[in-house]
């Protein structure tokens, strides 16, 4: 069957992953659908094809896909509520050609400006291709709807891997000194748990015996401790934490800096500013980098970008906020520096990122106040 592709799958590495055919580019040809336009979806980065009498929707036709390849494409596209519709396109010789294409239900999305394919590829092509590897691996284990619900988490995990690969951190040993024997997904959901069999190079140059490890696969997070250098105040947030509850802590509500996952295509600084607005309703005017580090690399992939956020914390800045769709119930509170510093030195805080940010602030507070 011939399939007309006009959107993100025009990024050939992504098409190869989704179709499962590394030679798929040898079976494509240019085509157009007159009377239609490809536009960015309002509020999103991906495109839709919609009627526009004065436009032409450009794309490619993939010839001769097998049933197995179509099954992969169907699984991937149905996850986003797209289904196949048959119509006619024109090839380079203006000859009509019957094709099928993946389109959303009528009225599902609102078109914005014409879609900039090259910009999308530059901004999201690589991370989307990385996420598609995990998405397609779910074929046979999830329904398309289930995969679609998990896809934002897959994108966040892919963005974390992309960020790690570009970190530029070097040492005496590297990834080439690890031999992965097998990786098994023990759990897939909001987070993943992977079980690994591997060997690694020892410091004497030899390779270790095979070892079995389990890794909690999280995503990169931005963490910001808001500080008002004029009023000499700090803001903390408090919320229920299931990890503390499951450990048996008698008080599973913890005092923390503001924190949140870094979205695909977002810089850590952008995430810190966004989360401060979402969780506490405050505007961060500038950021001071504290650290970018793993909290516990023996068991988790999580990586934290910790900041001090310069802001204003007047009387009445506290409140209750959070994303209701994510069951967030977050209470903010403002502490004068003397109160915060006393609690910090007394060991009253139970979250390591808060301790890191708090002690950094203690060392640099006077310079921040002097420049305020």
UniProtKB/TrEMBL annotation:
GO term, biological process aspect, one: nucleoside phosphate metabolic process
E.C. number(s) listed in UniProt: 3.6.1.13
Keyword Metal-binding: yes
CDD domains, sorted: GGCT_like, NUDIX_ADPRase
UniProt superkingdom: Bacteria
Motif (Nudix box): 260-282
Classification via PANTHER family: ADP-RIBOSE PYROPHOSPHATASE, UDP/ADP-SUGAR PYROPHOSPHATASE
Record's function text: Acts on ADP-mannose and ADP-glucose as well as ADP-ribose. Prevents glycogen biosynthesis. The reaction catalyzed by this enzyme is a limiting step of the gluconeogenic process.
Family: Belongs to the Nudix hydrolase family. NudF subfamily.
Protein name as catalogued: ADP-ribose pyrophosphatase
Gene giving rise to this polypeptide: nudF
């Amino acid at each position: 069957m011939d399939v007309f592709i006009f959107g993100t799958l025009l990024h050939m590495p992504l098409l190869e992953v989704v179709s499962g055919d590394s030679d798929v580019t040898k079976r494509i040809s240019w085509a157009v659908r007159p009377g239609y336009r490809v536009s960015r979806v309002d509020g999103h980065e991906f495109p839709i094809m919609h009627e526009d009498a004065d436009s032409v929707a450009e794309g490619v036709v993939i010839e001769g896909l097998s049933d197995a390849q179509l099954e992969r494409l169907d699984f991937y596209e149905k996850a986003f509520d797209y289904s196949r519709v048959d119509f006619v396109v024109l090839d380079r010789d203006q000859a009509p050609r019957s094709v099928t294409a993946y389109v959303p239900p009528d009225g599902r999305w609102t078109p914005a400006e014409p879609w900039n394919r090259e910009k999308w590829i530059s901004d999201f092509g690589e991370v989307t291709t990385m996420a598609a590897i995990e998405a397609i691996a779910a074929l046979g284990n999830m329904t398309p709807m289930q995969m679609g619900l998990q896809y934002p988490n897959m994108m966040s995990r892919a963005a974390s891997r992309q960020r790690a690969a570009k970190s530029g951190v070097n040492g005496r040993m590297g990834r080439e000194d690890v031999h992965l024997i097998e990786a098994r997904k023990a759990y897939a959901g909001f987070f993943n748990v992977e079980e690994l069999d591997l060997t690694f190079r020892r410091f004497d140059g030899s390779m270790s015996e095979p070892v079995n490890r389990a890794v909690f696969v999280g995503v990169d997070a931005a963490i910001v401790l808001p500080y008002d250098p004029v009023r000499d105040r700090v803001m903390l947030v408090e919320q229920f934490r299931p990890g503390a509850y499951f450990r048996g802590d008698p008080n599973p509500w913890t005092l923390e800096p503001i924190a949140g996952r870094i979205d695909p295509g977002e810089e850590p600084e952008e995430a810190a500013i966004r989360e401060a607005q979402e969780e506490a309703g405050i505007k961060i005017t500038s950021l001071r980098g504290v650290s970018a580090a793993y909290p516990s690399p023996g068991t988790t992939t999580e990586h934290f970008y910790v900041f001090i956020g310069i802001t204003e914390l007047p009387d009445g800045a506290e409140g209750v906020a959070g994303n209701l769709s994510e069951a967030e119930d977050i209470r903010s509170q403002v502490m004068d520096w003397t109160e915060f510093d006393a609690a910090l030195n007394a060991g009253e805080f139970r979250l390591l990122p808060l301790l890191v940010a708090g002690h950094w602030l203690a060392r640099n507070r006077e310079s921040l106040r002097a420049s305020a």
